[in-house]
Specification:
binds zinc ion; alpha+beta; 36% strand; single chain; 6-stranded mixed β-sheet
């Protein structure tokens, strides 16, 4: 989805969208959007500089890093983002950008890519190590059973053969 700046006359306006997951283009498969994306944006226009302040609410499904089972994670994040047109890039001094310590993105042909904005927000919200539950027991390294659902029979008997020489050293 694109935000068409050429159709925005005022210097300040508000938008609210409820996007179906299928309407949001996904850049990769690290997550799936499983609930309509509730997106609110306040737009401030200062000549060609666009300032977006917004909130995004939805739910993502992603695989647990230990047991690989998909689980759902609610998303409720705010963002504050500035945009400049690509061709004006060189006219903005680095000092000016640094001073304000704001993240600057660029738009082309008066279009702001809302999909890219959403993808960035989701990636920022995703944990480094996604876990379905804090104490997820993961998969048995021997038989691959999901130890959250049932303990497997090899869990207690099985010993890592790589530890065998170490054991002989110890006793
Ligand atoms: Zn898990
Ligand atoms: Zn097992």
């Amino acid at each position: 989805m694109q935000l068409d700046l050429s159709r925005i006359g005022q210097n300040k306006c508000q938008f609210e969208w409820l996007l179906k997951p299928s309407e949001v283009l996904q850049a990769d498969n690290s997550y799936h959007i499983v609930r309509p994306v509730d997106l609110k944006i306040e737009l401030y226009k200062d000549k060609k500089r666009i300032h977006l302040i917004g909130q995004v609410l939805t739910e993502l499904e992603l695989p647990c890093s230990r047991c690989l089972e998909p689980y759902r994670m609610p998303i409720d994040v705010g963002f504050d983002h500035q945009y400049l047109p690509v061709e004006e890039d060189l006219e903005v001094s680095e000092a000016e950008v640094e001073e304000e310590e704001l993240e600057i993105s660029y738009y082309k042909e008066a279009l702001i890519d809302i999909n890219a904005l959403l993808h960035e927000q989701f990636c920022l919200a995703l944990p480094m190590k996604p876990l379905c539950i804090d104490n997820c027991r993961g998969l048995c390294v021997n038989c691959g059973a999901n130890l959250n659902t049932s303990p497997c029979s090899c869990e207690t008997d099985w010993e890592d053969p790589r530890l065998e020489p170490l054991k002989n050293l110890l006793f």
